[in-house]
Design a protein that fits this description.
The chain has 269 residues and is mostly helical. The chain has 11 helices and no strands. The chain has one domain.
């Protein structure tokens, strides 16, 4: 595998993970959440991830596994790996208490209000949120990295979608820590560093899998990545988009993400 491809894949994963820092910066420059923008953006991100998972990644995984095991067995392997990916991310999600889960979306102004009311619990809240984000970002990092290794165009699309998804997480980490410490710098860095779990997850996953890489392993991994991204979209992005704005805005964003992803894939046919 070419070193340039590895560097490109790692760079995309780093970009996706560190977008938590964008959320942190937004929290300090905006006292109120632009709910309409976030609703459309999160819906858009979900649309990109669902479309690319079901139309492109699942199909590529099936092709690879069918070549390796035959049509019937390859299809079975793809389906099992897809739902295995869903089970994997669902278990991670279940292990994190919902009140500390960064995917329980809240507005900037609500976080500021809570922070002023419950000052003594803030540092714990912020640190647990950062830890929760780090745990969630491991499989997301592996998803971005794997896609970028196989298809750079797919990697870019997934990295952008996950970057949008990570922005509210940065807000959830930085606001409580800012009120606990009074330091914008410390709040920003905790938020920023929590995003590093994404590239770290990619590197650890790749190093573990590298000795075993083959078309079959890539097929299974790709199908699992599709499952992970579908779960993230349905369990996290769409509910968050609904919570931030009107129902129709999140759906418009969802369809828009699918349309953009479809045309970007058509350009490479």
């Amino acid at each position: 595998m070419e070193i340039n491809t590895l560097i490109f894949a790692f760079g995309l994963t780093l970009f996706a993970g560190l977008s938590t820092g964008i959320g942190s910066a937004l929290a300090f420059f905006a006292k109120r959440t632009n709910t309409k923008f976030l609703s459309v953006a999160l819906g858009f991100s979900a649309g990109v991830m669902i479309y690319v998972s079901m139309i492109e990644i699942f199909a590529k995984a099936r092709d690879a596994l069918s070549l390796e095991f035959g049509d019937r067995e390859g299809y079975w392997a793809t389906v099992i790996a897809f739902f295995g990916g869903i089970l994997f991310i669902a278990i991670i999600d279940k292990l994190i208490p919902s009140y500390e889960n960064p995917h329980e979306m809240r507005k900037i102004e609500d976080l500021y209000e809570e922070s002023q009311e419950k000052n003594q619990k803030l540092m714990r809240m912020g640190l647990f949120t950062a830890l929760a984000i780090a745990i969630h970002n491991f499989p997301e990092g592996l998803a971005t990295f794997t896609a970028a290794l196989t298809d750079p165009g797919l990697g870019i699309a997934i990295a952008v979608a996950i970057a949008i998804h990570n922005i509210p997480e940065g807000i959830a980490v930085s606001v409580p820590i800012y009120y606990a410490t009074g330091s914008r710098k410390k709040a920003f860095w905790y938020s920023f560093l929590s995003g590093l779990a994404e590239p770290v997850g990619a590197v650890i996953g790749f190093l573990i899998l590298m000795p075993f890489l083959s078309p079959a392993v890539f097929g299974v991994l790709f199908a699992a990545v599709a499952g992970i991204m579908v779960f993230i979209s349905i369990d996290e992005l769409l509910p968050a988009a609904e919570e931030y704005g009107e129902h129709h805005l999140s759906i418009y964003g969802l369809i828009g993400g699918m349309v953009v992803m479809a045309f970007s894939l058509l350009m490479f046919v």
